[in-house]
Specification:
The protein has 416 residues and is mainly alpha-helical. The chain is 74% helix and 2% strand. A two-stranded antiparallel sheet has the order 1-2.
């Protein structure tokens, strides 16, 4: 597989993303084409969508964790805001922001994490639009087919006038068009509808040309999606007429479904986390749930159909990944709740055990300063009592000895 040389875009910001995307796209296209020769571009778009979204899954999970943490912290944030409610000076406002920032930092919550997946997805979307708008310049196998057909058209005598007279509307829609260059002819051929292809073959006299017809059928096989009356060309814009209207409807519908499911799950958690059990939904978020799908539908209708396919596949993957992510984080939060519950139970047991250790003699807790002090006082009294008893014993002994001595002296005197 040869590396593709970019020839379509000169935008310094878009070109690096388009280059990276083209390498990945070429790799996926090559693998798909080894497995099947039908709907190769459509399958490549779907596979690429899943690969791109799967790579962003860790970021989505991190964003969901941060979003849940912010939801749990909202009551504390409101308390901080209430504390500074009547303080409008810049210093108080700065202190309030610092307290809120410290609260988020301590609990590993990032208010900007919700924007990060969208910021990463936007360059991918723009680069993908550039590729699907100019597929022959980015996919080698399709590029070779269109290059061969363009050279055959240019070999026709007076081809420039023929193309100008018959396809002026298409030419006007192309930027930097120069009919004398092969790249511009390739660009024109890629943006022809099926009906216009029939006109092209007739006015150029290429009807029945075996090499041209073979290349035409090959590109048709690569670019087509569906079958029968639902056969679409991924290079065409679906518009709002004909069967192609299915794509704007599906694109807008799946966008709404994804937003609605995410909002409903968010409202449910917010209601559970709120002290009063109420949901505080911002009007801007509610409006975007309905406005953004309409914008997506109009965007899809005016762009190459392949981009609409990417959007629909991405929305379906997003809905499935949302359920997976929510289930994963719900289990994590459940385990954390059980852990906190066990810690509270253990603290309660220790507290009750400490209350039960009471000195029955003094009425104080064992091990406290009062009980130790009382114990020392009791020992001192016992020592004093013992000393008093010793003194009484010694006195009684002395009295007994004195009495015995007196009796002995009286007995001696009587004998004399």
């Amino acid at each position: 597989m040869n590396f593709v040389m970019l020839a379509a875009t000169t935008n310094w910001l878009l070109k690096p993303f388009a280059m990276i995307m083209s390498f990945i796209f070429n790799g996926v296209f090559y693998v798909v084409n080894t497995l099947t020769s039908h709907h190769v571009l459509a399958i490549t778009i779907i596979f690429f969508t899943f690969i791109a979204r799967a790579l962003m899954m860790p970021l989505m999970i991190k964003q969901q964790r941060s979003s849940r943490a912010m939801m749990r912290l909202q009551p504390k944030v409101e308390k901080i805001q209430a504390k500074y409610k009547n303080k409008k000076d810049p210093e108080s406002n700065q202190k309030m922001q610092m307290e809120i920032s410290e609260l988020y930092k301590k609990n590993k919550a990032n208010p900007m994490s919700g924007c990060l997946p969208l910021l990463i997805q936007m360059p991918i979307l723009f680069a993908l639009f550039e590729i699907l708008r100019n597929v022959p310049f980015y996919l080698n196998q399709i590029g070779d087919i269109y290059n061969s057909m363009a050279l055959q058209v240019q070999a026709v005598s007076g081809y420039a006038d023929i193309l100008t007279n018959n396809f002026q509307a298409v030419i006007n829609s192309l930027s930097d068009f120069d009919i004398q260059t092969t790249d511009s002819v390739i660009d024109l051929l890629y943006h022809l509808s099926r009906d216009q292809w029939g006109v092209l073959k007739e006015v150029t006299g290429l009807v029945g040309n075996a090499a041209f017809e073979s290349n035409y059928m090959l590109q048709e096989t690569f670019n087509s999606f569906g079958g029968g009356p639902l056969l679409f060309n991924l290079s065409e814009a679906p518009g709002w007429t004909g069967i192609g209207v299915i794509f704007p409807i599906l694109s807008g519908g799946t966008t709404f479904l994804q937003s609605w499911l995410a909002q409903r799950a968010n409202d449910k958690r917010q209601k559970m986390a709120s002290p009063d059990g109420k949901v505080k939904q911002q009007n801007s978020m509610k409006m975007m749930t309905y406005v953004f799908p309409v914008m997506t539908a109009f965007f899809t209708a005016s762009m190459p159909l392949g981009l609409g396919l990417y959007w629909i596949a991405g929305n379906l993957f997003g809905i499935v990944s949302q359920f997976i992510t929510d289930s994963m984080i719900d289990r994590e939060e459940y385990r954390e709740a059980l852990k906190r519950r066990e810690e509270l139970i253990e603290k309660k047991k220790l507290k009750e055990a400490s209350k039960s250790k009471i000195d029955k003699l003094t009425g104080n807790r064992i091990g406290t300063a009062s009980s130790m002090k009382s114990s020392m006082a009791g020992n001192k009294i016992a020592a004093m009592r013992q000393q008093q008893e010793e003194k009484e014993k010694q006195k009684a002994l002395k009295d007994a000895q004195a009495e015995m001595q007196e009796q002995t002296e009286n007995a001696n005197q009587e004998e004399k």
